[in-house]
Amino acid sequence: MLKDFYTAFAAVCFTLLGLWLIVVQTRHSDWRGVTAHRRRAYGVALHFSLPGLMSLLSLVDPASAALWRVSFAIVASGGAIVLLLVRGSLPTLIGRLSYLAAITLYVLIAVVAVFPGVVADVGLSTRALRVEAVLLIILVFFGVNVAWLLLFDDTPAAAPRPRPVSENPTPGSFGHEKRRIVSGERLR
After folding, report:
1. Are 23 and 151 in contact (CB under 8 A)?
2. In this structure, what DSSP letter does residue 66 have?
3. Which pLDDT does position 72 carry in this prediction?
4. Does residue 67 belong to any structural domain of this protein?
5. What is the number of structural domains in the chain?
6. Interacting residues of 52 by C-beta distance below 8 A, sequence separation 6+
7. What is the dihedral of CA 45, 3, 78, 134, to 10 degrees?
8. Which pTM does this prediction carry?
9. 3-state helix, strand, coil in the chain (%, to 5)
């Protein structure tokens, strides 16, 4: 098995996820009011966390082909479904193509995991697990590119949030009196 590869790849994926979480934290005030940005930020996190999860699961028992096949199939199928659900409207052609490519890669990973013989059927003379590794590398590459696009995407100004009822003073309350004093009105 590709134990050394998946060990290093899992570390890279979770490092990228950590860096992405820092980006999300710094852009939180810009993105929290825009559903599309929140969804895309989550989609980017999936680009890093799911390949990392698959890599870690393949290391639980490196000699077990059944374990990697089942775990890759479940995680990749889930990744494709969740990306379909969270994609929202994508403003650019590059963004739409990146998401479509990521969903396609997740589907391919699931297909190779469930039917590893398909690799030989298409004429490749390598093991299915190596094909999975290449697909995961491409998936993370797309994740980095989607992250880059989202990082520099224009964020529309969020609509001002209404103040909670407790912050809206009513006539006769202390806040109302204070406002009347500040505005120069006479108190009664």
Report:
1. yes
2. H
3. 92
4. yes
5. 1
6. 9, 10, 12, 13, 14, 17
7. 80
8. 0.73
9. 75, 0, 25
Q: Residue with structure tokens 């599309």?
A: 36
Cβ atoms of 83 and 110 closer than 8 Å: no
Q: What is the mean pLDDT of the chain?
A: 80
CA distance 140 to 132: 12
Is 41:24 a contact under the CB 8 Å cutoff? yes
- Which residues, given as ranges, of the chain have pLDDT below 70? 1, 88-91, 123, 125, 154-188
Take residue 154 and report the two structure tokens written for it. Answer: 């224009």
Handedness of CA 168, 171, 175, 181 (dihedral sign): positive
Helix axes 35-60, 65-86, angle to 10 degrees: 180
**C-alpha distances in Å from residue 50, one per residue of 16, 67, 167:** 12, 16, 43
Residue 140 belongs to a domain: yes
Q: Which domain holds residue 12?
A: 3-156
The whole-angstrom separation of Cα 89 and Cα 111 is 27
Q: Which residue has the tokens 């890279």?
A: 12
The confidence score (pLDDT) of residue 142 equals 86
